[in-house]
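Sat 14:20. Reprocessing the chain from the morning session after the first attempt stalled halfway. Input below, unchanged.
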Amino acid sequence: MKSLKPRLLTAAIGIPAVVLIIFLSELWRPTLNLVVSGVTAVMIGEYLNGKGMLKNYPISVVCILAAFLLTLLCATAYVYLILVVFMLAAFMVLIIRHKKFSYIDFCYAVFGTLLIVFGMSAMVLVCSNGISVTFGFFVVLMLPWMADAGGFFVGASMGKHKLCPEISPKKTVEGAIGGVLFCMISAVALGLIFQLWVFSAVSVNFISMVIIGALDAVFSIVGDLSFSLIKRSLGIKDYGTIFPGHGGFLDRCDSIIFTAPIVLLISQYMPILSLG
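Finished this time. Tokens:
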């Protein structure tokens, strides 16, 4: 439990910031797009810095700018244009700087940019396509964190069997199960709170919420382990240092990159909110 104090400090700072973002987004919806796009750009910077590529400005500027624009405009007809320009610019950097910039580094930068954008843009789409920005934001952001919190506390108190010791030594099977259960309970609780007290004019699809809760917990672990594996291959502990006990934005949001598309996919076929 030694890491509990910095986690609580991060929560004390992060929760008011999230509330402010939600409030501003309800007043002006593009606020969320701008904030998520800015965070995505920072995540790309952290990702590139993990391999010492942030100061390779030709490729880092291309990746960071593309990440910001793709996330910001993900619901518009400009996405394909930005993708084309991004790929052409990235390959031009590779061709011009091929003696100093290897194809392996090129693949690391481009694939990582597209992966992170893919996940974070799903968050924007969930919030912009739904009835309520607030509810979509909480579903995408809160549930993976609840799974992480449940896994942390259950694993710290009851964990005996290692889940994937070579990648993440602290994760346990018991913690993973606790995370799934805690995430499912949190999903139902979120739906009840929202339907009964926040926005009584809507109906929450609790079947969708339970499915999202279960899958979110599983894929949050996949996301966490995936980026932990990348960190181990790079020989670093964290991608950033902005959050005490959590690292950087990418360390904190790695699970969302994998869970947000799941929420978007399920909500397309089983809407989580409906009027009346």
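Residues 4-275 form one domain.
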